[in-house]
Amino acid sequence: MITPGCRLIESGFLCREEIQRLNNFFADDLVLGHAAKWEARLARSESGSLSENGEEIVRGCDAEQPVGADEWDPFEKEDTAPKAMRSNDWLRKVDLQAYSNLDFIMAVHRHRFALLTKSATTSLYEIALLCAPSFLKDDSEITCATAFGLGSTRKSERLDCVCIAVGTTEGQVAFYTEKGTLLFIERFANSPILDVSFEQFNDEQQICVSTENEVFLIQPFSMVSVLTQAKTAIAMGQQNYQELSDTLEIELERIEPENGGNFGSIVITGTQKPPSFDQYVTASTQDFTRRVDRPGLPNYSTLFITRPDKYLGDFVWHETGQKSGAWGTAVNQVANKVIPHFGLRKFLGWTKDDTRKTWAIGRSKMTAYTRGILGESRVAEWLVRAPDRPLIAVVDNHARVLLIDYNSRQIVRIWKGYRDARCLFITSKQDDKTALFLVIHAPRRDLIEIWSLQNGFRVSARHVPSNSLLLDGGGEMVLGSGSAELSSTAFLFLLDGRFLSIEVPYICALVRTSHEDHDKLYLAKLSSEIFTDLPKFTSAFVELKTIRGRRELVTNLMNSMNSSTQLLQFIDALEKIDSSISINDLLIFIRRLCTDYEKLSRWTNAGRLAKRKTFLKLCPTMEFSKLLSLHIDFESAPVSSTRSSFADFLAIINAQTGSTTSQLRKLSDKELHAFAHLIFDGFMLGKQPFDELFGVLNELPFDTENLAWLLSQWWVHSSGLPTLRVIVSLILLITKFINLSPNCLETFEKALLECEKIDQSIALYAVLIMIRCNQRKEIIEELSEARIHNEVVKEAQPQDVNLFYHDAQSTIYEETDDLPPVDLEGSIEERLLKKGVADEEIEETNEWEIDMVENETVFCWLRAGHVLSLLEKLGDPIEKQSFSRLFASGMGYFTEQLAKYVLIRGENAAELVNLLEALLVNPSNAPILCELLKTLPISLEIDRIRSESTWEAMSLWIKNKQDFEYLEQFCDFLPTIECDRLRHGICRLAWDTHLGELFKETAQIFDKTGRSLKDREARKHIGITDMQLPKFLSASLLCLRELLSSVKDSPPPLQIEHEEWLKTSFTKPAINFHQITSRASLCETISRQGLVNYHLVLHHLHLAMVLRLQHEALDRCHVIRNLFCDKGQRAFFLPFTSHPLLPLAKVDETIIERRRLWIEKVSETVDEETIELARELCQEWNLGVNDVIVGVATRLLREGKDTDASREIASLTHTERMARKMCSILAARVLRLSAEKGATVQQTTERQLRSLAGDEMTRVSLEEMNVNGWEISINSLGRVAASIHLPDLIARDFKEINSICQQNFSIRFW
């Protein structure tokens, strides 16, 4: 059984004559007033509208997401095409209101209103009333209107007449009959009437008149009485509307909400009793402990009021009066006219003085209290009340539809993405059951959706004609009669004059979930075997009940197919099934994809050759064509790469379809390259026509900019040298893309900058220049001779930017070449050694020269690319080159790259000089390097290469501190820099960025420990081992020494120069840099540095020497800070450009003595290589060399090298300290001799010897450890001591030792 769907049924229409009459009637009111609510919306829907941030949204490109209307069961097919073109100007000016299920339609605009009635026999609407109220003043207008039925006093008829209530800007409400008779006017305020509404509930009726600040609730039976009296009096000719308005009085309540005025819309929500919670809230305002004890609570009239400037709306409650008085008032007014008058009526109290009427504006105000506020961040734009349930639908300014339960004052559901929407409720009945639906009309998407409020599902969605209006049919409510059925209908009004009724069967509220569940379970049970068996697949398709399920099954079929032919067989079988009409668009889309894949994968043409002569004419200058020819392969044919399979092609298309973001950029490199080769290989190889390729591209779900990006990726990742055929094809494609979207130029420029294959970058750059540059008119005419699709290409002008796109491939391609081939065989070295590539041919094709300012820039860019290609051809360890790296690194990029090449190859400074000198003699040894030096003679000057190599070595060492080979290269290249300014800059840059901080850490650790570092300490604090620490300290010493030597003579500032063509490339870019910021070159940076403070550097040099000596010393020495005065210590580690006061010459005697002792101790332990550093430090400290000599001589004597020690002692000027050392060593040797012989020495003698020896007892040693050696050493040391001048006290000790030796060992040395 097929479930009937929602339908649009034509219920009536306006003929052309009636529409013209309405046009003529409203023709005088050309300016929109308060009642023309639709015109602004219609104007926005036609020309685009504004989003929340004020940006214009064009139709078809709305910010709203796709609604997926085709995924749901659609309305039954109805013919919504207009029957005839009718004028609709009047519709743009009026506000439409309906009554009695669209039997009556009222159109209101400014000073006029019209009433349309539906024929009882036909569906034609006729104009029953055209009225221009006479009581309106010139500056007064109609603000609102409503229609309702007036109950009849006859039992046989329920409806007496249709009344029309019209509100004005002067605060009046006028009541008309459907015949146009004005019955009564009541003044409610001095401000405009906001709305007049008539609502009916199960047990009551309410009439509400609202202004911007007040609400008037009219007693319905009082209104019936007044209108009945007025209608009877006017019909009998007794009184007119003015007299009746002055005498008849309406019973009403004038309400002023406590939250103030400025209302938007007001909806009456009926009479309610407060819940217990509200009772306690009211009581708590007086006393929280107060008990609420009321046997009966009063009824409250409730309203929902929206406010356009504060929040969504608030719920207002007002305690009603005694409604029984309404019947008394009605009887009183009727009796005044019916019962004869002999004074009895006055006696009974049934009459009153007519002159004492109190107008509504003069009634006393009563305050209504707010029971809740909703949506403080939202503002309501539209609201409607459900007829039989406590629900309100509100459209807010955040493009949301809110469903509100006004009994609980809660939002029960929110729909998002419906800007400027309108909504209505529809009731559907079956027997005694009623279902409620919500109709949402989204005018920006021309969409109507129907939602079931029983289970929350969307039961239908359909696109409708543009500028359609959603109308409430109006209930059949009759004032004074409560027997009307509470229902609601909705209609769609088209601009051609037709009214379509929206009908929703009751069953739509019940069957939606079962169909979806059925398809979901059925699809889960299916296996992959059905995608290879056509009968099983068609059977499964027939079993599905929803469009979503059918789409999912066909989509799974697409994902499982590897052949377009097999997929077409399944599509042919599906098209024969009746239910496939619901997914016909998907089947057409799949068929089109299969056809497109066949065109892309199976080429028909055999290929064409490109005209070299015509191509070379596109080059702007002769030099440009010569240099470009080095990077183009004129002979070889391009080779195709791996392309996407059919399954991969469908997967990419499916991912992009329906997506708002580009899925191409999310593909892996392998998938992207394969897809790009599938799309462009046929045309690039010359085997696919141009119009066929773009016919396929137009059907793919990718925009022009994404396709241009895909082409750029195809180009930058292509392998091999660019061929002439591919370049010519590229010219046509890029020009076409730029013509379609100028933003594509930026895509190709960005690809040019980032491409790491420099030959492809150069060729792409040349293509962009050829497209952009102005060319000779003869060439333009030559390229424009061909005709495509029998259309002559218009002659391009010389100043036309996009002059090369002419759809004329046949003029650039030919079957045979009319020029001899260019000899480009051999290696790159052989090609570079030639004077030029086919110079005669290029000169022949470039007979002209164009006087253009940018020609110089164009060639400079190409030359820069050529130099990048030379760097790339050097091979390892040169990294991949690109224009972006070049222009980000600045004009020093080439010097930097060559320095890396020299450094990483392991060549030292001497080898670099030898290499450069050899190139001057024989360039063929390294042609690429020789070509680089010739092209950049200034930038690649030898001293700049040395500077770059020095800095690069330091940078590489910092990246890997364990590889001290780079630090050794730094020390090797640094002294070879001849320019003092460059050497100073390199040293300062190395110290400020790398060496200085490490040197500071080292000094602090040395100062803390007072000794050389252990391996663990060095790794933790400095990041190097203890074995590598001497190399680091030596590099620091060298850096500081070079700093001193470079600033000794105050070198002048250095001006860094570059080649003129290189400057032009950076100052006058030929393409967009895409905000690439070039940094200054190394030489430019270091040349601008200020000179260092000589004395501050010298102070740090002294500290470096101390650290170096401290590391070599084996014993614990003085704390380093004690070797410098307080002022000197504060100057450590300051920036070298500061100027502290350093006491280098004036040092305290205490510090000098500490230095002497420290030098002496260090000299006793260090080796011969380090002793020279100690001597240098002594000279820097002005200490002389005595301390060093004492330390060296002491070390030699301890080792038993008396002869070497005597030579050192001979240069001493003061011998007292040396004599004491010798006396101690001599006593130690005597004790060692006594121990070796086992001789017994008197205790007093032994104590005397030990006192003289001190610590030397454990330090002395001999080269030959035997007894005879000790005896010889004692004699030897004695002779050395006898050769120098000894103080008396020390001489006496020597004599005592001599006597001890003579007495105990028979040795006499004195």
Automatic annotation (TrEMBL):
**So what family is this one in?**
Belongs to the Rab3-GAP regulatory subunit family.
Keywords associated with the record: Cytoplasm, GTPase activation
**What is this protein identified as?**
Rab3 GTPase-activating protein non-catalytic subunit
Any one cellular component term from GO for this entry? cytoplasm
Pfam families, sorted: RAB3GAP2_C, RAB3GAP2_N
Q: Where in the cell is it found?
A: Cytoplasm
Q: Does the keyword Transmembrane apply?
A: no
Q: Where is the signal peptide?
A: none
Domain Rab3-GAP regulatory subunit N-terminal: from-to ranges: 90-470
Question: Origin organism of this chain?
Answer: Mesorhabditis belari
What molecular function does GO assign, one term? GTPase activator activity
Residue ranges of domain Rab3GAP regulatory subunit C-terminal in the record: 928-1230
